[in-house]
């Protein structure tokens, strides 16, 4: 199994210094993500989920333990990783197309090929008629679609998503869950989603890593045994609701 693991986290701990002493955000976390797998990390707000993502993204270092990407220690940001943050963070003076092309420009990708790929991605996320629109002309959900396309422009091997739909209304969030699942189904990019929504984690994932309150530790890793491809209608099935109830009981929360 180790040969095909995209991400390996081994006894990872992360603490931050404060005036009152070190604060432990993550404690002794161990799990793996296999190539092509969709994993969600779920837990209460403020438990350390985003800290874990930042370590995997190479934006922060671990205090103890190791984080590896395809067997190599993560020592900084990786070109093979794409990140979608909680807010789209689009440049307001650039069109949707130009925003998607930004990483390609930074990485020096061939212009014609990058433009063709950007247009393909904008069509994939349902924005082929909005390529020349500016962020203020797009809804919040559309802006987040642009951010997803931007994260995929350089064909990353790993896609990290930090609660990308948390600021959206319930209906838009549900629609984008379906869109994200469709995009993942086509690309099978190894994906890690940070979320505090149990239904979102169950709908999207192969496995859900359920975390405790801070310092974040793994309470349980739940295999999502729902068949793929998944449909919106599946979210009202008895099997879906059973998994929501199981994870809710683990985390000690009501339906979220």
What do you see in this structure?
The mean pLDDT is 91. 34% of the residues lie in helices and 25% in strands. The strands form two sheets. It has a six-stranded mixed sheet with strand order 6-7-8-3-9-10, with helices on both faces. The longest helix has 18 residues, at 170-187. The chain has helices at residues 49-57, 96-107, 111-124, 140-152, 170-187, 198-204, 238-251, and strands at 5-16, 23-34, 38-42, 64-69, 72-73, 81-84, 158-162, 190-195, 207-211, 218-223. With 256 residues, it is an alpha/beta fold. It has two domains: 1-24 and 34-80 and 157-244, Rossmann fold; 90-155, no CATH class. Helix 6 crosses helix 7.
Notable characteristics:
256 residues, 7 helices, 2 domains, six-stranded mixed sheet, single chain, alpha/beta, Rossmann fold, four-stranded antiparallel sheet
